[in-house]
Sequence to fold (640 residues):
Amino acid sequence: MSETSTETGTGTAETPASTTGATIELENLTKRYPGNSDPAVDSVNMEIKAGELVVFVGPSGCGKSTTLKMINRLIEPTSGRIRIDGEDVTDMDPVKLRRKIGYAIQSSGLFPHMTVAQNIALVPKMIGWSKSKTKARVEEMLDLVGLDPAEFHGRYPRQLSGGQQQRVGVARALAADPPVLLMDEPFGAVDPITRDHLQDELIRLQRELHKTIVFVTHDFDEAIKLGDRIVVLRERSHIAQFDTPEAILTNPADDFVSGFVGAGAALKRLNLTRVRDVEITEYPTVNVDDPLQDIFNKLRAAQTNELLLLDKRGRPYKWLRRGDLMRARGSLARAGTLVHDTVTRDATLRDALEAVLTDNAGRVAVTGHRGVYEGVVDMETLMNSVHELLEADRQDAVEHQHELEDQRSLQTHQAQEGPGGEAEV
Amino acid sequence: MNFWDYIGNRHQQLLADAYQHASAVFQCMVVATLVGVLIGVVSYRSEWAGNLATLTTSTILTIPALAMIGLLIPIVGLGVAPTVIALTLYGLLPIVRNSIVGLRGVDPALIDAAKGIGMSRIARLVKVELPLAWPPILTGIRVSTQMLMGIAAIAAYASGPGLGNEIFRGIASLGSKNALNQVLAGTLGIIILALIFDAVYVLVGRLTIPRGIRV
Fold:
């Protein structure tokens, strides 16, 4: 209780409109640890726009966390400047600085001896908000992160699930309405399903709040999902690429980045495309009600050595091969292999690929309304589609690149010519 | 005269001794707690300072109680002074050691979080580290108290207060008819006091350890 009050006297329960983001500029930011000749972070230059969610992603030990912690000076930079909203904060009192920057960490960092409400109220209390204002803010924050204030207010952290703790952690970080929020692998310790929910929540929060968020992760998928822009860092926090997720996916700057994006790029593409977008091929079909002789004839006539047997309602039932009927001595009930997986036109190509891969013959039936057969997608179709998609992406990326270069050359041109032009006027 | 008659006869004297015994231990515990936690707070962050504090206090504990009081008498005289000094010194070790262990045991991620949300050094200590280290510190206080209960009996050697007087009187007059009763009354009195104190600590723990970290 040693904090001095800086209450300005406007302590009504009304909370002001929330503060939106501030810009962050890092200039030649360097961290050297004594006894180590190589710097841990080597001269990072970066400009983060106000209201942007930037993700630092990179392998373990690349200095991404160190870089993040230098922004709120949990780690003091050896040299370089940090500017937030244009103001140089490199020499400011770190305690004061940190109260203006939200901070959320892995495993939530909630204080176990304080209730949820006490945890969230910490920063507002420290900066001298009145009791009633703080109380109202706590309820508001719980609401914001999707927890019922009445239910969770008085609980202790250990009475919450991992996901709930993480939500409270974010609520605490945002309680004093800071313009900037730093998140250090906040969802690293929760199970994949919860993590997915939390990511969705963060996206929703950011849409409402427009804070400047710097988010550290080693999970590239998380970076793709969350980031407005992504900074791919290599060792010593050297920036390998700083761009939008699309640009990084389709046009990695170098081998390091493409190695980091990995085979995932093509697979991720599959998630963004639906079965309806690719060509569905016709397949010879017969119906269980057809006479056996017709089925024999069709099997013999078909170019494929296989037929798809449909049930009475036209739904895929069995795959029939040429020899199957002979072996089953003409009994349809015993012949062929059952169809166990189908996809709809709304399924993603990834689902389709999954089905095709699990099927030993490499194809899957596409069904429509009420499971009625519509066609077949096979391996070849999938491969061709993916190739086309990736090719299109590549062309987009090249165009994007050209645009950027044009812009840049225009800027350089203006920068060189600009002053001269003015001088003439 | 059997034991119960003896108790009945001397209960006023016994109660007075018991009260003084309890009061001496309690007061020394308060001082030992304050000093012990302070030493812990000052030393826990550095490896060698913490070890030095633990080593010093445990060395004190190895000095035989009788010798300690005997050595103090020429310096501070007879009576209350040597008792209080000796008891306080003996009480330090469990408190210092548990303070250091407790403070060092606070999850570094929580310290990081506390710093990150803008808590000053003092605020971190008072609001986060000490509350989280409090259960082990309280255990240290408990152990210290039990120990001091026994050691306090020796204070009678320096004409100090407490139930030790009964025991010493009994030992001095060994063979007389009340000797055994005296020793027994003093010893049982100390045991009962120790149990009462322990019960009080359980209650203190209930009241002061936040629900969120209670085991």
Notes: Chain A touches chain B at residues 1-3, 72, 74, 95-100, 102-103, 105-107, 109-115, 122-123, 126, 156-158, 172-173, 182 (CB under 8 Å). Chain A has 15 helices and 17 strands. The first strand of chain A starts at residue 24 and ends at 31. The mean pLDDT of chain A is 82.
